[in-house]
What we know:
By secondary structure, the chain is an alpha+beta fold. The protein contains ten helices and 23 strands. It has helices spanning 173-177, 206-223, 264-276, 291-309, 314-324, 338-344, 349-373, 380-387, 395-406, 411-418; strands spanning 2-12, 17-27, 36-44, 47-48, 56-59, 62-63, 66-74, 78-85, 93-99, 117-119, 122-126, 140-147, 157-160, 163-164, 167-172, 180-184, 187-191, 194-198, 231-237, 244-248, 251-256, 435-444, 454-465. Strands 6-5-9-2-1-12-15 form a seven-stranded mixed beta sheet. The longest helix is centred in the last third of the chain and has 25 residues, at 349-373. 41% of the residues are buried.
Amino acid sequence: MHFSVQIRPQWDKSSGTVSALDLTLKTDRPVKAGEDLAARILTIVNIPFCPMEPASFSDEAGEIPVEARKGGAEMSFIHREFYRALRDTVGETVIRYRITPRVQPEGYRSSPYFDLVAEKGGVLGTGTTFLLHPPVLSEEADFSLRWDLSGLPEGSRGVWSLGTGDCEKRLTVSDILFSAYMAGQVKAIEEGKAGFYWFGETPFPAEACAGEITRLFNYMSKLFRDKGGDYRVFTRRNHFPGGGGTALTRSYIYAYGEGDAVTVEELQSLLAHEMVHNWPTLRDDPPGAGTWYVEGSAEYYSTLIPLEMGICSPRRTADIINEKAGSYYENPMQGLDNLELGKRYWTDRRCQRLPYARGILYLSNLDAEIRRRTAGQKTLLDIELALLQLESPTAEDFLRIGSEIAGFDLRPGYEDMCAGKLPPPDPDAFGGKFRVVPCKVKLNNAQHRADRELLDEESDGYRWEV
Length: 466
């Protein structure tokens, strides 16, 4: 199947940004009467599709009459609308429509950053909230992206997660949607396979951050035996306090809030986590079955790699471990099992944070135990690399391969972890470079990590010290 997208941004001089996107989509995918011709995501994690003018559907025989229908929930957080063809298509199908960037409601403070939003200088977002698409997300397509920048100021650029300017790639429909699209007066630093992109002025030194990103990505790509491909970080300004980010296809959207004071070290820690997401994976079906591994691996390696590279001091690393792993003991949801956390993941941020901390604690302990039992001949990384050879590894693959590599049965400790039962931190974890100190911590009931809503109830906890 061929699927092409042409994006023609429109510029508003008074606001100094992109005001609309005119889109022309083409596909040679044949459709019979009564079959779905195209789809769009109505909401993804409660984020709506961009405001859209009515789309036109045509082919070599003229207009294609369509009928819209709403589908059921997919992956628990995606709701789509499907356009059913009322006649057989003839030749190439062409879809044309216009969208305007989303205007976030008053008081909005949320992520992930899937929505297409404008700021002074241009527009940035993912395909999930502005692209109509072939209806089967797992179907592969020969995808071509074309930018018509004739309506933008001179020097403007169009950048995509997987390339700059016009591009052609073979991808799944899902990969096309879950990638970033940026257009306007883009500023950039591009070195080797890594690129960093932003609009206007940032509250951090973009050039210095780009240098760290390049070093980190090159180091990690060798560690995980990356098979090639670029990596891009897209930056956007939130219209509300606070920031964060969203991992996408070979890319990441980083957002900073109004008035945020962002340091290179803070950004480095965040981006290191997101870069790791290019590699370790575990099927998350049902939700919660793999989150602990995917997020725990990202937390673990993003903590150790900067230390190994010498770009993060032991004292700063101890602070990072206390923030990441130590937060587990102050979370009032720590007794919930992984599948229950998965059910509440998108509705309760306490449940959203917990798999990160549970994962790094379990994996750091596991690495220490493997090293002891194999006299340093094997590590957690050996398991991670073996799983990367599989198309879509499952928890059972992790147990089978992990037990073979480690030389002992991983299942008992794994099942305890899944049930919300973790042993004390291993003193040899994190390379044995830190002292583990028991302590008492107040439970924090706040929804956002940066906020404090302390309860009277205390929990047994731990701190890591140099």
